[in-house]
Specification:
Elements: H1 9-13, H2 16-35, H3 39-62, H4 68-82, H5 84-87, H6 95-109
Helix pairs in contact: 2-3
Length: 111
């Protein structure tokens, strides 16, 4: 809606490079809200970051780079490949075992 005809001129002018600094800034604000144990501020900052994600994906869709579905399918595939104790035959009974399997599975992907 913000980037559609008649939408916001500022949002329509945004590109990925213009959004890049905002991703870093909002990430830092999320970390501060977590460190300050401020759930109201955390919800606000997560909303800001979510807006940036949606906007970045929309820009990429407009350029025919990829779709929202591509992003969602990609992350779902990544979790299925790396969480082999959930979607496979590996066993992880502790967070540390899961972390080690995740790292090992990630390394396999990059071989």
């Amino acid at each position: 809606l913000l980037r559609s005809p008649g939408g916001c001129p500022l949002n329509m002018a945004l590109d990925l490079k213009a959004l890049s600094p905002s991703f870093l800034e909002e990430s830092q604000e999320i970390v501060r809200a977590i460190e300050n144990e401020d759930p109201n501020n955390l919800a606000e900052e997560l909303g800001d970051y979510f807006y940036l994600l949606v906007m970045a994906i929309r820009i990429c869709e407009e350029k025919n780079l990829f779709t929202t579905n591509d992003v969602l399918q990609g992350i779902m595939g990544k979790f299925r490949r790396r969480c082999t104790w959930v979607w496979g035959d590996d066993v992880a009974e502790t967070p540390e075992q899961a972390r080690l399997l995740w790292k090992a599975n990630k390394l396999k992907e990059h071989e």
